[in-house]
Amino acid sequence: MDTEEFRRYGTDMVNYIADYYDTLRSRLPTPDVQEGYLRKLIPEQAPTEAESYDDVKKDLEDVIMKGVLHWRSPHFHGYIGIAGSFPALIGDMLVGALSSNSFSWVSNPASTELEVCMMDWLGQMLNLPEEFLFSSGGKGGGVIQRTADDSVLVAIIAARSRSIRQHKDMTPGQTLDKLVAYTSEEAHSCIKKAAQLALVTIRNLPTDANFSLRGETLAAAIKEDKSKGLIPFFLGASVGTTSTIAIDNLCELGPICERENMWMHIDGAYAGSAAICPELRYVINGVEYSTSFCLNPHKWLHVNKSCSAMWVKNREFITEAFSVDVEYLKNHKLHGDTTMPDYRNWQIQLSRPFTSLKVWFVLRMFGVKGLQDRIRKDVTLAKEFETLVLGDDRFEIVAEVNLGVVCFKLKGDNGLNRELSKRINDDRRVYLTPSISKGVFFLRFVVTVHNIESSDVTYAWSVIQEQADLLLKSQVNAAS
Amino acid sequence: MDTEEFRRYGTDMVNYIADYYDTLRSRLPTPDVQEGYLRKLIPEQAPTEAESYDDVKKDLEDVIMKGVLHWRSPHFHGYIGIAGSFPALIGDMLVGALSSNSFSWVSNPASTELEVCMMDWLGQMLNLPEEFLFSSGGKGGGVIQRTADDSVLVAIIAARSRSIRQHKDMTPGQTLDKLVAYTSEEAHSCIKKAAQLALVTIRNLPTDANFSLRGETLAAAIKEDKSKGLIPFFLGASVGTTSTIAIDNLCELGPICERENMWMHIDGAYAGSAAICPELRYVINGVEYSTSFCLNPHKWLHVNKSCSAMWVKNREFITEAFSVDVEYLKNHKLHGDTTMPDYRNWQIQLSRPFTSLKVWFVLRMFGVKGLQDRIRKDVTLAKEFETLVLGDDRFEIVAEVNLGVVCFKLKGDNGLNRELSKRINDDRRVYLTPSISKGVFFLRFVVTVHNIESSDVTYAWSVIQEQADLLLKSQVNAAS
């Protein structure tokens, strides 16, 4: 494909995408396919000869879209949403076109430099303590990881390295057998998985009535483990758990971690972004105690995937664990005398895309106010949905609604709610994912898609009520 | 930005990208900026109010392009190149627009299903043994990781888990203290880093005169370590080392790994792709012995970043190490009775983009022949460059030229060649990165950009000769 063809087909794809968004409400969000559907629709082998753009495009609807779950649909209310926006898409096109690898300053100076600035911009928007910013001139700073999973894995590996260095009287394996990490039983699976991959024990601690991890619970666990000769070294705290968007009590947990010389990592993947609104800044109160803090702009700041923003107070903890020095990476004018971070030493992978470029497009084209407005709109819509739920006395709210997610259920047992969840998704007009906390199965209504309106909220509620009617009637019939 | 504006600005960006490619030869590949240049050019804080697309675009040249190292320039010959192509860019636009998260089948059926098919297509193109393909109906299969770094880290963690399970008489830490991984001293840093992050010892073994790791070297190391009571468990073999594109002797190494019950992972990030050409298939001869094998379509198969293809013979080794079961991920019609892989259990991260979609665009729009032609063209151009080097008796070739990279140097010491490397890059007309193997410093000429022509090769050589002339003259002058 030459550049003239790229102009034509690229423009065609831009219009296909615009049409897709314009007509998203006319598609059911949930596909109706069985496992193995796609293999029957395409050849068993790659084509020998080149096919045309039109050949591929012809199959888009019949092969691909047929089996897509439409995460950008205003009728998609599952999981935690993924942010996306047109400014991000346009920035991303340029990221792809430049196709650079920014593992060191010299390998693409603009990328490292813009990342440093964007991480400071974002940090200021969140009103993070100065010490997390490059502009403070201290040891802190930010880095774009790809996902919150990468961020917490980087944190726990760095914390593990620090602990091993602090216990020179033991072999690494002996230390490892004694290290204990903590998180709440409500925390995202990535924290548990990071511990599993780092080969350290993790304890999933119980939470209070608001699904929040409290200081006294952590303190008791630490005391118990220390009495067994174990070494508490890491807390994975949550700002916005996956299930109920609960917020751990950072102001209680932080001082305990400080006292115990433990690394406190905060996973604020979704909810952390709310802190750009002054009235919601409280969600990260206590961040000043953390060793590292992460949120995903690809979750609620309209940067599309993948973009996880991670800040640390002391970048040396990271670089000591993640540096590997080899000659072909040393082609750096100022090696050993650099003020710019060599980001390859802040992460798992050597290679890294120019992600800061799309962050720059988003922050400029929305402006801080624009991003605040979007978050406030989502919170308002969630509150609207909560009001609808509260207006139907067959239903109840499961967790306090503070941000863009509503956890609710039919009054009744788990079986009833599992059946409701199944019926709603089988119906296919709206997509919800259920969850379970403290043994209670419930449904979740998530607001994150950029073009969702109040009418989409009432539409979803009407579908849910309709399915609840049918379910409850069928139960009455079965009982009579 | 509404959809009408997206049509306008998206089209504008398509044309900006086309213009960029059309005029790439008129840009110097290497930027001329000092560390910290960018912070001086942009505000200290994110804008409060939204700015227009035109505002952002106005800054593209003055802020961003000013500091970009142009990896897509036909005068860029550094590192190992990154593939890119217009079909990949167009596919990527749709990936971004759909903005899905394909961690399980149900979270986007089309994504998982297409990935299964694309990994089989690619595997067939490489003539991989059947047992690596899903279509065999066995335990093998492929997955798209993001980078070769992820692939080798996944492999070493899975191997470590397997070893720990095999030594139930010891604690995980005790086993860990005894595990030994091996790789060659020429291997990519990601193998060494993976061992560091997995907290296992790694030995960097010496290579033969062709920079290739040989069986007897590995066998001797294993014997030595076993005599110390250590547990050899993993070999990170290279098909195409970073420095000289050397290929380890898989047919010697493989049987040793089999006999010793060691995991053999092959990192074929760049060179592995050559195997789609029958006459170059030899580069992966011995792949049948491997437990896992990886190559990056984003390096030489014209899929832009990030796309690392990884195959395993037994996917259970991976999923046993990488599964974390939590309720909110169980919303799967066929949970526990599924034929499709839940790819979240094959990798570090929970989240994953719909990368197979751009692979599908590329494989169809190039066709197997088109991709073979590109690889053959790059090999031919590298041979042309080698001929030019051999025609100038001040220079010598450092390593056998089989693929798209030429390692060469001035006859003379490391200091002379360091100076030549510095002068070429300071000159800025072409970009090369040097390397060092067996103590010898040399330059590398890499061919990977899709639109490079024979005239670009002769141009680069003329710049190199010109700088060599100046350098050698200045030395004569200094001596006289």
Number of DSSP strand runs of chain A: 13
Structural class of chain A: alpha/beta
Percentage of β-strand residues of chain A:
5-15%
**H/E element order of chain A:** HHEHHEHHEHEHEHEEHEHHEEHEEEH
Please name the fourth-level CATH homologous superfamily of the domain at 93-362 in chain A. Answer: Type I PLP-dependent aspartate aminotransferase-like (Major domain)
CATH topology of the domain at 93-362 in chain A: Aspartate Aminotransferase, domain 2
User: Rg of chain A from C-alpha positions?
Assistant: 24 Å
Q: How would you classify the quaternary structure? A: homodimer
Strand order of the largest sheet of chain A: 2-8-7-6-5-3-4
Largest sheet of chain A: 7 strands, mixed
Number of helices of chain A: 14
What's the helical proportion of residues of chain A? 40-55%
- CATH-derived architecture of the domain at 93-362 in chain A: 3-Layer(aba) Sandwich
First-residue to last-residue Cα separation of chain A: 68 Å
Task: Detail the topology: elements first, then pairings.
The structure is a homodimer of 480-residue chains.
Chain A: H1 3-22, H2 53-64, E1 76-77, H3 86-98, H4 109-125, E2 141-145, H5 148-166, H6 172-178, E3 179-184, H7 189-198, E4 201-205, H8 215-227, E5 231-238, H9 250-259, E6 263-267, E7 292-295, H10 297-300, E8 308-312, H11 315-322, H12 356-390, E9 395-397, E10 405-410, H13 414-427, E11 431-432, E12 434-437, E13 440-446, H14 454-479
Parallel strand pairs in A: 1-11, 3-4, 3-5, 5-6, 6-7
Antiparallel strand pairs in A: 2-8, 7-8, 9-10, 10-13, 12-13
Protein name (chains A, B): Aromatic-L-amino-acid decarboxylase
GO molecular function (chains A, B): aromatic-L-amino-acid decarboxylase activity; pyridoxal phosphate binding
Pfam families (chains A, B): Pyridoxal_deC
